[in-house]
Amino acid sequence: MNINNPYRKDFPIFRDFPAAYLDSAATAQRPDCVIEAEKRFYETMNANPLRGLYRLSMEATEAYEDARESAAGLIGAKSPAEIVFTRNSTEALNLVAYSYALTFLKEGDEIVTTVMEHHSNLLPWQMAAQRTGAVLKFLEPLPDGTLPEEEIDRKITEKTRLVAVGHISNVLGIENPVRLLAQKAHAAGAVIVIDAAQSVPHIPVDVQELDADFLVFSGHKLMAPFGIGVLYGKEALLEKMPPFLRGGEMIESVSLTEATFAELPHKFEAGTVNAAGAYGLKAAIEYLQGVGYQAVREIEDNLTALLMEGLKELPYVHIQGSEDPKKHNGIVSFTMDGAHPHDISSILDGFDINIRAGHHCAEPLMRFLGVGSTARASLYLYNTKGDVERLLEGLPKVRETLGLDRV
Amino acid sequence: MALNSIYNEILNEHNIRPTHKGEMADPTITMDGKNPSCGDEITIQLKVGEDGIIEDGCFTGSGCAISQASVDMMLDLIIGESKERALKLYDIFMGMIKGTASEEEIEELDEAMALKDISHMPARVKCAVLGWRTLDAMFKE
After folding, report:
1. What value of ipTM does the predicted structure carry?
2. What is the CATH number of the domain that holds B21?
3. pTM (predicted TM-score)
């Protein structure tokens, strides 16, 4: 099963784990180098970073700040000061909603997002709209997931102050035209917030090229430890925003009644930080860069094509979104006649095949697509032809297990 | 596959060809049940006579095979029984899943015994009990 994939051996879980893991859009598996980096941090550098005046603490600080540079480099930020570490994408989006939107949006302003967002890029804006009196507007895609330019022009107006959009849909796998959206947002005098949780692990993302004002991603989807995520923000914007959380290590000076805040990015990193997680993130970024996005793309595109071809052979399976495998970015959601997605996932588990089932934290999109829920297979650089073949062989067994073919 | 033994012929039959799926014109009690985390939704209608006997029952809704088949099996069991007997069966069903019901008690569940192994699939227990929880709520309100 490893023959065609030179990277699989780097992932310890596959050594003793019999399953075909096809749920990387939920979380990726971790390579040895990431697990070892986090261990190495605790074994050789562990002290509370950014505080101590002794060498060990300074070493921890250096490891943490190196990770920030590494993240800045990955997405093309101008300076590490534009990289704020968070727990994950959700926290990063909430930071922008609480700090930026609540401060700068007012009644009558408009927030534009899409019907295909993950709940984490919807609920913070619902909150911001409720509290500021801003109006939420939704871009609606065509059946294949594409956002037409006319739709963008209809919804982004001179009242728009913030556009929040997912770079790649976690359900349809389609890439949204974020560069175009950024241009339209800026022309209207709005900022753009890009949820890049599903893109940064799979395709090159450059915040300069996209002209992103804010961009977020989670470490765990790109093979880093859980609990470390990134908020990129343009320095001028981050400068004028108030802190999100307040407490230790984000201050300049404090009296009993007031405080002044630390420089960027520390203003947004209250409390003891996840330095070991950041160090692990750096190892994950280096691993990903070592493999190269080109190779990731090639593996995912080939396997997605194989998967979609196979699914099309099964008359009772219906793929959601585009017909073109290249537009899926390794994410294929589908439904099966007569079988609920939860049964599909449960039964496949009995054959050691791991896929996700449900609404994928995107209930409004499920309603828009007219399905209650879907099954979803998602790929990453360690998947093999064998994984895809097992899923394709598993689906007829799902029908059989449910007794559907004896009807 | 041992893990998939829950999808046995009895469960599949109730899922594919439910006996009690539909609506009735004159129910005495109607109750909705929902598993928000997985989106299973059912509505149960019962016609309970003045003597407390469940004369008829039916359900509508959507969800996984386990949730849908379990409601259908439950209605098979309780139609023609008293409210008290239905609640007793609820206790036995819950006891079967928790592993506290005796073999003799479990026998009383008839075809619903097919769900005994659901306790080995913790993520699906809520599917199996949706109908029963809804029934319990109906009689307690």
Report:
1. 0.90
2. 3.90.1010.10
3. 0.93
